[in-house]
From TrEMBL:
Catalytic activity: ATP + protein L-histidine = ADP + protein N-phospho-L-histidine
Compartment annotation: Cytoplasm
GO molecular function, one term: kinase activity
Organism encoding this protein: Geobacillus jurassicus
Pfam families on file: DegS, HATPase_c, HisKA_3
Residues spanning the signal sequence: none
Cofactors: [4Fe-4S] cluster
Domain Histidine kinase: 184-381
Function: Member of the two-component regulatory system DegS/DegU, which plays an important role in the transition growth phase. Member of the two-component regulatory system NreB/NreC involved in the control of dissimilatory nitrate/nitrite reduction in response to oxygen. NreB functions as a direct oxygen sensor histidine kinase which is autophosphorylated, in the absence of oxygen, probably at the conserved histidine residue, and transfers its phosphate group probably to a conserved aspartate residue of NreC. NreB/NreC activates the expression of the nitrate (narGHJI) and nitrite (nir) reductase operons, as well as the putative nitrate transporter gene narT.
UniProt KW keywords: 4Fe-4S, ATP-binding, Coiled coil, Cytoplasm, Hydrolase, Iron, Iron-sulfur, Kinase, Metal-binding, Nucleotide-binding, Protein phosphatase, Transferase, Two-component regulatory system
Source domain of life: Bacteria
SMART domains tied to this protein: HATPase_c
Protein name, per record: Signal transduction histidine-protein kinase/phosphatase DegS
Amino acid sequence: MAEEKRWDVKQLDQIVEKMIDTVQHSKDEIFRIGEQSRQEHDRLLRELEEVKQLTVQTIKEADRLEMEARRARRRLSDVSQNFFSHSEQDIRKAYEQAHDLHMKLAMVREREKQLRLRRDELERRLAGLMQIIERADRLVGQITVVLNYLNNDFRQVGELIEGAKQKQEFGLKIIEAQEEERRRLSREIHDGPAQLLAHVLLRSDLVEKVIKERGTEVAIAEIRDFRKMVRSALSEVRRIIYDLRPMALDDLGLVPTLKKYLQTTEEYNNGVHISFVHIGEEIRLPSRMEAAVFRLVQESVQNALKHAEARHIDVKMEMTCRHLLVSVKDDGKGFDPSVKKENAFGLIGMRERVELLGGTLAIRSKLGGGTTVFIRVPLDRSTDETNKEEKKR
């Protein structure tokens, strides 16, 4: 019986390896499509700029020819009306000049029409390519989460399913895999530093043209804006690194890290006041619990800033002998809890974290009346023993 179980586990591992290879191949293909689309997007963008410049030049030329054609028609009309007072050569010359200008104007107008059509076509293709690029980026991020899950957690499935305790640990690791954090990090990098750096790349291509066409003063102003964008991208990267996991959480503990985080958040958001009150003894909790509670408070504060547009946020935390109680109250625009929103992944992730700790999460809110998040996590006598064991490690 034991040999049959081991054989099943080995076969399961082989299936997982095949899954990983297939998913990795799919990720590489999607990444290749995204890169090819980016290259085509950049090429079409350059061509679009050239077409726009040619269109402007053609319109100016058409306007010039239109004025000359009008003068030629007036000249021809004058010659026709005074036919006998002009020589045959003058009449022929006036007619030929009017005819030539009319033909040139027609050709220029046709070229303008073709350039406009080409411009519209390029803009449509660029919009389509941007959709492909964005979708490829999302798919690569989602597949990366799946690969991390398969590599870090699912490879252990054979051993984890051998007993009830191991099954419980497997379920815990699945929830702790933090797919939501990875998706959030992917979105923030895509919407923040990645967009800024792409814009920096486009602006850098224009600096040389600005120097040639508009002079050094305009180019210097362009370079200053360029530097501002680089600084902004660097600031975004540093913020994302900090959000990924504050190092102070492991060194100082939950309470000092929360104080620092809330203070920093207040400084980054002008006009926002964030208060923090801690009641009870300041003790160290298991690192897993400290990380989970920190993320819960972080998610609640960010929701209050981004979605509720709050100006005052009050964070309270109390440690009793049996429970850890946390409340996050804001004066934002609130919402109707009875209305279920689609793609409310933030709240789903918060509930999963609280359930993982064996606690409860309650949200009280109303439109125009702010929101309060209540978190209740049980503490037992094994907390101190767990801390001691983790410190020994």
